[in-house]
Inverse folding.
């Protein structure tokens, strides 16, 4: 896949300058840029972290689908992170020679660095169970926290959540539950007494499938960006953003579904024929739930909901990476910290070298890494904003002032979300924020 | 008069749209009595989408059908009727905004040829593929 969005740069000032607090960023977006300034170090940081993110993500998507499709309602899922070989070898739909839309030129199976880490971890070769108990493994808890953010926030556009409440979904889930527990009178009896509890668990599993299918796309996108950078073919932050924009469009129509497999039999809980798409039912809700909203993490700081410290409206939640104070988040057991720990294992040497030269070097590598991740996600969010502008509004080089003003209002509305003091948009404008 | 699809086939600039209608299995529906109002993107509109976009949709007919249904509203409406109302509900379910009367703009597309009357509806030719949202 190549970046082929036509260069869109406005030339003559057909509309007056923005007076928004983030006018500089808005003008950059209007010139085809990213919220993240275009500097060689920013490019190096975001590409390096995309690579480090993609390796554990290659595990996340496989295991999310394994749990949604195979583990399903296992009442004691102690081994849900012990992914089967079938899912570890499952061909990525967007990598490898079998792919109909090949985004990454690499292998369709699990990434070699992931397999190496799964075998050795930080400690060394030992049985998988010991790696698991010692917590020397990929932290699926982070992936599940993202899934739960999507489940909990709901109502973020798309039709996925509405479908989970429909009669058709209930009927499909009922069929799947009865098939899964066939011959198990205890569980079938519990299902008869508490049907809604089982249904809610299946809804959660549908979000496992949703997120797994979403990340199956993002891992090869990030791997390819890393390879292009290494080859000298990705040379600026806007180019990196455009690559993401093209990727978003290319896979926008990918079906989002939830299938359960019992042996060789497939039960369609959310069939592909419902017409759910990667863009509307997965990507946009994911960005809203995970980048913007999430929820306060236990152990970071205390909030007094009665004093209004937690918004009454879920849409105002602002605990995602775009608002995160990375320093306290870097405490043990907190989902974003688990991700940082996962990424730490796969940092390219050039990123390690940057961290060595700043702050407390390896002593605060997780914090530096977290801020790099924050920069990189501002770039991904920029790609989403530009993709939405491209899909719903007008080209940046449009010559109609009304169209340009419509673009302006859209960009300003997006920037309004970063007016609250917790937002890190102003911080990432400086290279000194580490 | 011809049907909507016969009119589109005769125009010669809707090759991609007609292929997409077939891939999505919507031909029989659009050949029915309707009536429908169709916002028909020209071939250049599909070609302007980033690479892979159309192919992914063609490979997945239910998802393609959803996007195509967003270009159709129930009933036969000429431009004069459409501009009376800021939004119309598409067959996909999401609203289609009429943004301007002159020039006639539907969502972020400009109507380059309006009010083509057909046996089973009206066609308005647009210069961009419109998307829900």
């Amino acid at each position: 896949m190549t970046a082929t969005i036509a260069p869109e740069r406005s030339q003559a000032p057909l509309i007056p300058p923005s007076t928004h607090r983030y006018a500089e960023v808005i003008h950059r977006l209007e010139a085809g840029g990213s919220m993240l300034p275009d500097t060689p170090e920013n490019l190096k940081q975001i590409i390096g972290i995309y690579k480090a993110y993609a390796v554990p993500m290659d595990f996340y998507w496989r295991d999310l689908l394994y749990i949604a499709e195979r583990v399903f309602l296992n009442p004691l899922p102690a081994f849900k992170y012990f992914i089967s070989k079938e899912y570890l070898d499952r061909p990525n739909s967007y990598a490898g020679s079998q792919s109909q839309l090949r985004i990454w030129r690499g292998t369709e199976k699990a990434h070699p660095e992931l397999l190496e880490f799964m075998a050795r971890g930080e400690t060394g070769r030992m049985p998988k169970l010991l790696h698991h108990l010692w917590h020397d493994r990929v932290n699926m808890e982070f992936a599940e926290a993202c899934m739960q953010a999507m489940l909990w926030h709901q109502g973020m556009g798309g039709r996925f959540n509405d479908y989970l409440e429909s009669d058709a979904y209930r009927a499909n889930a009922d069929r799947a539950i009865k098939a899964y527990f066939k011959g198990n009178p205890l569980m079938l009896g519990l299902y008869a007494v508490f049907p809604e509890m089982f249904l809610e668990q299946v809804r959660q599993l549908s979000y496992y499938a949703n997120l797994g299918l979403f990340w199956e796309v993002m891992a090869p996108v990030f791997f390819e960006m890393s390879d292009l950078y290494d080859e000298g073919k990705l040379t600026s932050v806007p180019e990196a953003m455009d690559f993401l924009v093209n990727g978003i469009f290319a896979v926008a129509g990918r079906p989002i579904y939830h299938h359960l497999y019992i042996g060789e039999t497939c039960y369609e809980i959310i069939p592909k024929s419902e017409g759910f798409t990667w863009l509307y039912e997965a990507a946009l809700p994911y960005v809203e739930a995970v980048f913007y909203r999430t929820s306060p993490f236990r152990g970071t700081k205390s909030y007094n909901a009665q004093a209004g410290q937690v918004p009454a409206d879920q849409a105002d939640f602002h605990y995602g990476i775009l608002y995160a104070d990375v320093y306290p988040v870097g405490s043990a057991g907190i989902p974003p910290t688990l991700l940082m720990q996962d990424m730490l294992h796969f940092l390219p040497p050039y990123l390690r070298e940057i961290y060595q030269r700043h702050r407390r070097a390896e002593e605060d590598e997780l914090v530096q890494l977290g801020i790099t991740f924050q920069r990189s996600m501002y770039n991904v969010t920029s790609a989403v904003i530009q993709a939405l502008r491209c899909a719903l509004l007008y080209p940046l080089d449009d010559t109609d002032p009304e169209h340009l003003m419509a673009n302006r209002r859209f960009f300003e509305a997006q920037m309004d979300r970063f007016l609250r003091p917790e937002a890190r948009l102003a911080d990432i404008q400086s290279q000194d924020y580490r | 008069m011809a049907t909507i699809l016969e009119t589109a086939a005769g125009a010669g600039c809707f090759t991609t749209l007609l292929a997409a209608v077939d891939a999505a299995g919507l031909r029989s529906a659009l050949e029915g009595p309707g009536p429908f109002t169709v916002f028909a993107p020209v071939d250049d509109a599909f070609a302007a989408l980033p690479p892979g976009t159309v192919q992914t949709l063609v490979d997945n007919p239910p998802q393609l059908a959803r996007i195509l249904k967003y270009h159709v509203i129930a009933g036969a409406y000429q431009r004069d009727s459409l501009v009376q109302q800021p939004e119309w509900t598409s067959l996909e379910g999401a609203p289609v905004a009429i943004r301007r009367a002159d020039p006639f703009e539907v969502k972020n597309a400009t109507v380059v040829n309006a009010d083509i009357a057909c046996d089973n509806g009206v066609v308005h030719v647009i210069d961009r593929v419109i998307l829900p949202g």
Remarks:
- Chain A is about 55% helix and 5% strand.
- The CA atoms of residues 295 and 319 of chain A lie 5 Å apart.
